[in-house]
Amino acid sequence: MRQYIPREKQVITIPNGASVSDVIDLTNTSLLGLIMPAAWTTAALNISVSHDGVNWFVCYDAYGSAANSISSPVVGSAYSLDAQSLLPWRYARLRSGTVATPVPQGADRAFTIVKRGLA
Q: Which residues share a beta bridge with 101?
């Protein structure tokens, strides 16, 4: 019989005037998806990753594309993420824009993220 592993919801925020969210601790969990806030200053949405919570990197997939990058996110929409690309990392955070061109948000932007415990 397969064991059911419940999903967890967590709210994280990109603060007003900032382009980076709170840190998501992925210890023993996998990030599965996110729900966009009801408003968004136009920008791409990217995920940065870290092994130590200090040094942050753009996460690329095996094809050289930024993993889990959403070029034109739609407000109030739900997005499934490639959980496998995030498994090696202990921490993640959301970024408005890119590392080269961050886009500060015009108000606090609260995201609901969905995680699943690892068996």
A: none
Q: How far apart are CA 57 and CA 35, in angstroms?
A: 22
CA-angle at 108, arms to 18 and 14, nearest 5°: 45
CA-based nearest residue to 96, from 49, 58, 60, 44: 44
CB 75, CB 40: distance < 8 Å: yes
Place of tokens 């709170």: 22
pTM here? 0.92
Per-residue pLDDT reduced to its tens digit, 2-54:
777 789 999 999 999 999 999 999 999 999 999 999 999 999 999 999 999 99
